[in-house]
Amino acid sequence: MMDQVLDLLPKTNRFIIENNVKFYNSYFKQTKKKYYVENTLKDEKNFISFLRKNNKILLNLKAISNVMLKYFILELVFEDVLRNVEIIKMDKEDYIERQDMLKE
Hints:
alpha/beta
């Protein structure tokens, strides 16, 4: 099935995955394609483990609870997130609030 996906999207070099990281890691190593692991709401319970296990992360702030979102948007926490996450997906309001930090 993955071969069919790559045949449909031959120029795509980066993919986003949510689960089966071992399988995709093995598969994409053979194809020299890259991937990002995106968090889901179910990852929130063990979020520190999620961050430790995965090194190419797409942090989806839309897929976490409001309590966690308020924590991630704190300036000190957000600085650390920026150092350890490849891509951040967020609402426009959150982007505007942290725009200065994102441009540095």
